[in-house]
Amino acid sequence: MVGIDIIKIDRFRGFRREEYGFWRNVFTHDEWGGAFASAFPARRLAGVFACKEAVMKAVGSSYLGRFDKISVNSDTSGKPFVRLSDDDVEVSVSISHEKEYAVAFAIKIN
């Protein structure tokens, strides 16, 4: 299965670091902190959000609407990867940004 999502980056402009308590059901602490440690937090949050949506579409079933079951990370080279609460599911992801949009693509491997 595959999943793709695109989102307007402007939806995340104006988010502030201290608002994490409100968004903790959508973003992990590390995702939130990583976004605000970057030069472009809105862009980073939009990419993570799009990635989670793409993963939900690729995996389906118990992951639909469950942002808390998906963690978006990146390796030392910056390549994104996800961790799911169900370790038996493997997903490969890609995130890209353009001036106004973030897009993510996910493929369920097994």
UniProtKB/TrEMBL annotation:
InterPro entries in UniProt: 4-PPantetheinyl_Trfase_dom, 4-PPantetheinyl_Trfase_dom_sf, Ppantetheine-prot_Trfase_dom
Pfam families (UniProt xref): ACPS
GO molecular function: holo-[acyl-carrier-protein] synthase activity; magnesium ion binding
Organism in which the protein naturally occurs: Candidatus Sungbacteria bacterium RIFCSPHIGHO2_01_FULL_47_32
Domain 4'-phosphopantetheinyl transferase: 2-106
Keyword Transferase recorded: yes
Name under which the protein is recorded: 4'-phosphopantetheinyl transferase domain-containing protein
Record keywords, A-Z: Magnesium, Metal-binding, Transferase
GO biological process: fatty acid biosynthetic process
